[in-house]
Amino acid sequence: MLVSGGVDSAVCLALAKSQGLEPHALTFNYQQRHHVELEAARRVSDALGAVHHLILDLPLRKIGGSALTADLDVPKNVPLGEIESRIPVTYVPARNTIFLSFALGWAEVLECGDIFIGVNALDYSGYPDCRPQFIEAFERMANLATKMAVEGAARIEIHTPLIRLTKAQIILKGVALGIDFGITHSCYDPDARGAACGACDSCILRRKGFLEAGIPDPTVYAR
Amino acid sequence: MLVSGGVDSAVCLALAKSQGLEPHALTFNYQQRHHVELEAARRVSDALGAVHHLILDLPLRKIGGSALTADLDVPKNVPLGEIESRIPVTYVPARNTIFLSFALGWAEVLECGDIFIGVNALDYSGYPDCRPQFIEAFERMANLATKMAVEGAARIEIHTPLIRLTKAQIILKGVALGIDFGITHSCYDPDARGAACGACDSCILRRKGFLEAGIPDPTVYAR
User: Fold this and answer.
1) Do B113 and B107 contact (CB within 8 A), yes or no?
2) pLDDT digits (tens, 9 = 90+) for B77-97
3) Residue A182's domain is classified under what CATH number?
4) Do A63 and B131 touch (CB under 8 A)?
5) Is B2 contained in some domain?
6) Interface ipTM above 0.95
7) I want to staple A221 with a disulfide (CB 3.0 to 4.6 A). Which of A198, A205, A211, B173 is the partner?
């Protein structure tokens, strides 16, 4: 299970745990601007019962091409309609393809065909690699790529339990599962103390979700 | 273009160069047992005219599951019929999926839709991620995964010019292109001085290819 330390992956982890699964959590230190999320990923994995938490270092700044992995400004206070209608500069080239590829390799070593990712195609930033058609194509490819699938030991399934939920629905599900969202982190551009900026797309979508859910957001925003 | 420093990627690079392309070479230090191949990848990229050579560090020993990335013995002197009929312990879980994912991200930053990989589905080790059906599924997925493809800037194409050639045909093509194969490296289990073992599957397939081509193999074998 991919765990970033944000709202979606926390709910995804708690959901899997509530179904009696034994989730292995995978997090990437991809030289992201908001590397403070690694601490959140550790807290989430511990608090919500991952049986193992693996953090892998990936040199994505050598590739760059995103405000999260290169010296580009993170857009602030973008109107909601615009967030949902274009692919922004915080898009990281091939990120979910890269992340799922490592998950696929690890799954094969664990002899487990079930990969979970908390992507969400409603209240999201328009990233192409969060959409159902991408996930389906990845799953199809994975079943041709691996010894496990080709030899028939296990079919690979990419589970996306949140993909058709709004952020508010995801938050309400998390509350029902007993998650303290104070341990999660969403901001792309936190200040030196780790406080959320409140104005990047990720903060805006998080704030909107908590507002719509009628749940107080425990995040400390810098403004 | 993925460049490992072996025969196939050298020919693939020379072929692209001969067609007037400007190849960007991508190599992975994935903590492979035969990391000596990184030197070969540098020599190949330099000698055959890559316009840029990027080496990325990947922590694949944290995942393991292969004789190339974990403490498992590399099989020696396996009969040819057997090499071609089963997936061996040198298979690295999801390796080509991981490698192509990084190539996809880099291609997007370079604003280039053409990715080359020197896979070969005839004289090979039975790895599932070298087969045409895997490559086609990856290409389809890539065109749903990326901003470049979704916004219509470029269609992504995974080029595999060697996929239906025998190792002997690949070597003859390389000779015609003027490649000195002395700069390449194939062995999975070289000795401390970097000399090829002569007995792993990769050495056996290389030796067979040179024999069938009627070309002297410049490799120094330990035995």
Assistant:
1) yes
2) 999 888 878 899 999 999 999
3) 3.40.50.620
4) no
5) no
6) yes
7) A198
